[in-house]
Amino acid sequence: MKPANLAPFLVAPLLVLLALPLAAADIAAPPAPEPGSVSEAEGLDAWARIEAVVSHPRCANCHTGPDNLPMWSIVGEDKTRPHGMNIHAGESRIGAETLACQTCHVTSTAPNDVAHAPPHAGIEWQLAPVEMQWFDKTGPEICAQLKDPERNGGRDGDGLVEHLIHDAEKDGFVPWGFAPGGGREKAPGTFDEHVRDVQLWVAAGQPCPQ
Ligand code: HEC
Ligand code: HEC
């Protein structure tokens, strides 16, 4: 056997060893592209992929408007509708006024795969603040508000990326959207691809379609 033929047998175990510590470590964003190194056209392409995520029911059904109603797009139904059982999040956005979301959506990082069971996450289940409404909004509207610190929780571009990482570290809502379990359709792409797209969009100066 020529020595070169041994290479795959030597390299494969090495890769496994290298991958182990990464998997166990805290979640980290890949290094951000240099500002100015991403063209506006590339930024708009990244936005198109971001838009497909943020307007997907797994994300938008919690980012709802001033009626304080969570939305449901249930497996086996073909229409999105207000959450069943007359659930109302109230101005607290966590149901404090009536029935707390956590009564059913317990805070847990355990696997979440039972069909039609209330999904859960590692943080307290609740609607996003009303100024972060995505449901029923157009892509350009969501784009404009997502880069507006008055309406995105006071975040600059890097702050948006940090939010995604921070949420994922706690097993929060964003990773849930990419792996919702229970036969639900996941948000398009992967968590890592979404982080990368937000970084590209930010480095391009957060361009929005007209
Ligand atoms: C009485 C129990 C109960 C309460 C209280 C409750 N939910 Fe739910 N929720 C469910 C169940 C059950 C499902 C899963 C339905 C299914 O998949 O068939 C669900 C699913 C959801 C979904 C996923 C919908 C989708 O299409 O991905 C969201 C979002 C949601 N609830 C938000 C909330 C919010 C916000 C609150 C508090 C204001 C809340 N829920 C309170 C039982 C509850
Ligand atoms: C269970 C409800 C819920 C789901 C599902 C959810 N979010 Fe959120 N989201 C929130 C809450 C609550 C906040 C406010 C957190 C904060 O500002 O610290 C938020 C804030 C955000 C923000 C901050 C900036 C802004 O303008 O909204 C981003 C970005 C975000 N979510 C992305 C996502 C993405 C991407 C998905 C789907 C993959 C998703 N969220 C699904 C509840 C949810």
TrEMBL record:
GO molecular function term, any single one: heme binding
Keywords from the UniProt entry: Heme, Iron, Metal-binding, Signal
Transmembrane segments: none
Protein name: Cytochrome c domain-containing protein
Signal peptide (from-to): 1-24
Residues of the Cytochrome c domain: 85-206
Coiled coil feature spans: none
InterPro entries assigned: Cyt_c-like_dom, Multihaem_cyt_sf
Organism: Paracoccus aurantiacus
